[in-house]
Specification:
Elements: H1 3-14, H2 32-38, H3 44-52, H4 57-60, E1 66-71, H5 84-102, E2 105-110, H6 123-131, E3 139-142, H7 149-160, E4 165-167, H8 168-188, E5 197-200, H9 204-215, E6 223-227, E7 230-231, H10 241-244, H11 255-259, E8 264-267, H12 276-280, E9 287-290, H13 300-305, E10 310-311, H14 328-337, H15 345-358, H16 376-381, H17 403-417, H18 428-446
Parallel strand pairs: 1-2, 1-3, 3-4, 5-6, 5-8, 8-9, 9-10
Antiparallel strand pairs: 6-7
Length: 447
C-alpha cells in the first residue's frame, strides 16, 4: 500500500472510536422495570427454562444469530504469522461483513497460548479452546490459521461440536472459485471432468479448492500442484498427508513444465510466477485465476493478451473477483436459520451452484443491485450481475442484493435435504424474500 493509503487506513481504524465493531442491545433498558427483566430477577426465568430444556437457549439468547470468527494469527491474509493481536483488525473486519451482508452478529476472537515452541499452531490447544465456545455461538468461522494445522483443527471441531464449523480460507475460496470455473467452462465449451488443472500454492486454500472441485466432478489424476519446492510428484519425501494425496507420477518439476497443455491455472502463491510465455503453452483459451494478493501471479491484461479466455483474481479492481464475501454471509445465514449442526459438502456445493446460476440470471423487478456508489467502476462501464454470461463476469458482484438471500436459501435447502437441519422451512420463496428484507431493514436501521 502507498504511504497515503496506510495513513487513511490507520485513521479509519482509530477514529472516532478504535476498531470497527460495537454491540447494541435488542431490548429496551430505559426504566427500572426494564432492568428487572434484562437482569435480576427476571433473567432467572429464561435461565431455568434453558436448564430444564437446553434447546431453549436458541429461543431466549442471541446464540442463534451469533458467530465467532476465531483465529490464532498464524496465517493472516498475505501477512503470515503476525500473531493474534495483529490479526484482530482482520477478524473485526470479517465481523463487519457478516453484519452488513447477512445481518449476522459476529465477534472476532483472537487466541494466544495455542502455539508450539516454534510459534506455530498447536492443534490440540486450539481445538480445546474453540470447542468450549459452543454454548455461546450458533456457528464458528475459523480464519487465518496456518497449514497444515488448520486441517486437523477443522476436522476435529466438526466432529466434536454440534454447531457449524467452517474454515473460510479453505472452503470459501473453493466455493467462489468453483462457481467461476463452472461458468468459465460453460463459455468455452469444456467439461470439468475433462480439464487439466495446475495449482500454484499447496496450502489450505489450494488443497481445499482441489478437493472441492473433485467433489464437483473433476478427476484427481488431472491435477498437478506446485509448492515452493516445485511440482508435488510421487518421488518427493517431504510431503504432508494433504499434499501426498495429490502426488503424481510426472516428469514435470517446475511450474513451467506443469502448465504445458493445462486447461485451468489457479494461483495461491507468489506474485509474477506465471508468465505470458507459460500461458501460451497451455491448452487453447485457458482459464486463469491468479489469486495472490495484492499482486497476482500474472496480471489479467497480460494473461488475456497471451490467449487466456477467462481471468479472475482476488482483487476488486479487476473483473471476476474471487471474493469470499460472496459465500460466507449467505452460507452462515442459511445454516443458522435452520439450526444446522454442520456445513457439509452438500451445502457447499449448493452455495457454489447458486452463485454460478445467479451470474446469468436476469434481474427481476423486485430485486436491485447495490447502489452505484458501492461500485462506481461497474456503473460507469455498464457491468452488472445478471447480464448475459460473459468472460468478464462469470460470478456475481458482492453488492448484488440477490447473493446472500439466494445462497442462504440453497444452503438451507441442502441442510434440510441432507439431514443436518434442526428446523424446516415450509416455503423457500417466502424465506428468500424474508432474508432480503431482513438485510435491507438492518442496513436502514444502521444508516
Amino acid at each position: 500500500m502507498s504511504d497515503e493509503l496506510d495513513r487513511i487506513a490507520l485513521d479509519y481504524h482509530m477514529l472516532p472510536t478504535p476498531g470497527k465493531i460495537s454491540m447494541r442491545p435488542t431490548k429496551p433498558c430505559k426504566r427500572g422495570y426494564d432492568l428487572s427483566l434484562a437482569y435480576t430477577p427476571g433473567v432467572a426465568a429464561p435461565c431455568l427454562a434453558i436448564k430444564d430444556d437446553i434447546s431453549r437457549v436458541w429461543d431466549y439468547t442471541s446464540k442463534g444469530n451469533m458467530v465467532a470468527v476465531v483465529s490464532d494469527g498464524t496465517a493472516v491474509l498475505g501477512l503470515g504469522n503476525i500473531g493474534p493481536e495483529a490479526g484482530l483488525p482482520v477478524m473485526e473486519g470479517k465481523s463487519v461483513l457478516f453484519k452488513h451482508f447477512a445481518d449476522i452478529d459476529a465477534i472476532g476472537i483472537c487466541l494466544s497460548k495455542v502455539f508450539d515452541d516454534r510459534g506455530r499452531t498447536d492443534p490440540a490447544r486450539l481445538i480445546s479452546v474453540v470447542e468450549s465456545l459452543e454454548p455461546s455461538f450458533g456457528g464458528i468461522n475459523l480464519e487465518d490459521i496456518g497449514s497444515p494445522a488448520c486441517f486437523e483443527v477443522e476436522k476435529t471441531l466438526k466432529r466434536r461440536m454440534g454447531i457449524p464449523v467452517f474454515h473460510d480460507d479453505q472452503h470459501g475460496t473453493a466455493i467462489i472459485s468453483y462457481a467461476a470455473i463452472r461458468n468459465a467452462l460453460k463459455l468455452i465449451g469444456k467439461r470439468i471432468e475433462d480439464c487439466r488443472f495446475v495449482v500454484s500454492g499447496a496450502g489450505a486454500a489450494g488443497i481445499s479448492c482441489c478437493e472441492f472441485y473433485i467433489k464437483a466432478g473433476a478427476r484427481r489424476e488431472n491435477f498437478i500442484l506446485c509448492d515452493s519446492h516445485g511440482v508435488i510428484h510421487s518421488e518427493r519425501k517431504d510431503l504432508n498427508p494433504q499434499k501426498r494425496a495429490f502426488a503424481v507420477e510426472t516428469p514435470a518439476r517446475t511450474l513451467a513444465d506443469a502448465v504445458r497443455g493445462a486447461d485451468i491455472f489457479l494461483g495461491f502463491s507468489v506474485p509474477g510466477c506465471l508468465t505470458a510465455d507459460m500461458v501460451r503453452t497451455m491448452a487453447d483459451g485457458p482459464v486463469i485465476f491468479p489469486m495472490a494478493n495484492p499482486v497476482p501471479e500474472i496480471f489479467p491484461e497480460i494473461a488475456l493478451a497471451a490467449g487466456a479466455s477467462v481471468v479472475g483474481t482476488g482483487r476488486s479492481d479487476f473483473p471476476n473477483q474471487i471474493n469470499n464475501v460472496l459465500g460466507f454471509p449467505g452460507i452462515f445465514r442459511g445454516a443458522l436459520d435452520v439450526r444446522a449442526s454442520d456445513i457439509n459438502d452438500e451445502m457447499k456445493l449448493a452455495a457454489g451452484n447458486a452463485l454460478a446460476d445467479l451470474a446469468e440470471e436476469p434481474l427481476s423487478p423486485e430485486v436491485r443491485e447495490g447502489p452505484a456508489e458501492a461500485r462506481p467502476d461497474d456503473a460507469q462501464q455498464g457491468r452488472r450481475s445478471g447480464d448475459r454470461l460473459r468472460a468478464d463476469m462469470v460470478i456475481p458482484k458482492p453488492f448484488d442484493d440477490r447473493v446472500v438471500p439466494r445462497v442462504a436459501r440453497k444452503v438451507a435447502e441442502a441442510a434440510i435435504a441432507s439431514g443436518v437441519a434442526q428446523r424446516t422451512i415450509s416455503d423457500f420463496d417466502v424465506y428468500e424474500k424474508s432474508v432480503r428484507e431482513r438485510i435491507r431493514e438492518s442496513r436502514a436501521g444502521r444508516n
